[in-house]
Design a protein that fits this description.
By secondary structure, the chain is an alpha/beta fold. It has helices at 2-7, 21-32, 39-49, 53-56, 64-74, 93-110, 120-123, 139-149, 155-177, 193-196, 198-215; strands at 10-15, 35-37, 113-116, 130-136, 189-192.
Length: 216
């Protein structure tokens, strides 16, 4: 079993909002025949804590203090309409981060996978056969893409959403892992998707993965 675990390859993709990182990740997973995981990790974490995925899904976009306050509120009652059961005990940011790291490590043990977001680059930082990728893009490119994908008509709203995401992701990873998630030293490959393009970005990652597989 141990030998088979070491033969699995994982590609982690960290991405700025609007950079197309999730789309690139899907292209890579489809071409390589790897499992694609993004929200699935959060779903497993919600199952682990016995709560609804909707309560946890924005946790990386908020500061730990704020999210703890929000989740404590959910611990004493249900959302409007009573669709969610009370959650006890409250889940804290660090609890969630730790749980997600363990889920990601378990996935890496069992499958060839492309993992988008969820701190995958940090969870697997000491493992062999992991390619850590960071996808970024020019601000205005990301703003336009967010307007298109999220159907936002106000450019100021889209720009604020992108900037808020950048700040909150930076703060979250710094608080949880003590590192700057945009530091290129965290990654094997950093790609500007607004310059390279989505399909060419995917081709670069696929090419690197295939070369690594040939080295085995």
């Amino acid at each position: 079993r141990h030998m088979s675990e070491e033969r699995h390859m994982t590609i982690t993709i960290s991405r700025q909002m609007g950079s197309g990182g999730a789309y690139v990740g899907r292209l890579v997973a489809e071409e390589l025949g790897f499992k694609y995981l993004d929200r699935e990790i959060l779903r497993q974490a919600a199952e682990h804590f016995g709560t609804d995925v909707r309560i946890l899904e924005d946790i990386a976009e908020r500061s730990p203090g704020i999210i703890e306050t929000i989740i404590k509120g959910f611990s004493y009652g249900t959302l409007t309409g009573g669709t969610l059961q009370p959650m006890r005990p409250a889940v804290y940011s660090r609890d969630l981060f730790t749980a997600e790291c363990k889920i990601i490590q378990g996935i890496a043990d069992r499958y060839n996978a492309v993992i988008v977001g969820r701190g995958g680059f940090y969870a697997l930082r000491e493992r062999p056969r992991v390619i850590r990728v960071f996808i970024h893009a020019a601000l205005e490119f990301r703003v336009k893409r967010v307007m298109q994908v999220q159907k936002i008509t106000d450019i100021r709203e889209a720009r604020n959403r992108v900037k808020d995401s950048d700040q909150s992701r930076t703060k979250y990873i710094r608080d949880m892992a003590g590192i700057d998630w945009t530091d290129s030293r965290n990654f094997h490959l950093c790609i500007d998707s607004s310059f390279i393009g989505f399909r060419e970005s995917a081709k670069m990652i696929i090419s690197l993965a295939k070369k690594m597989q040939l080295l085995d």
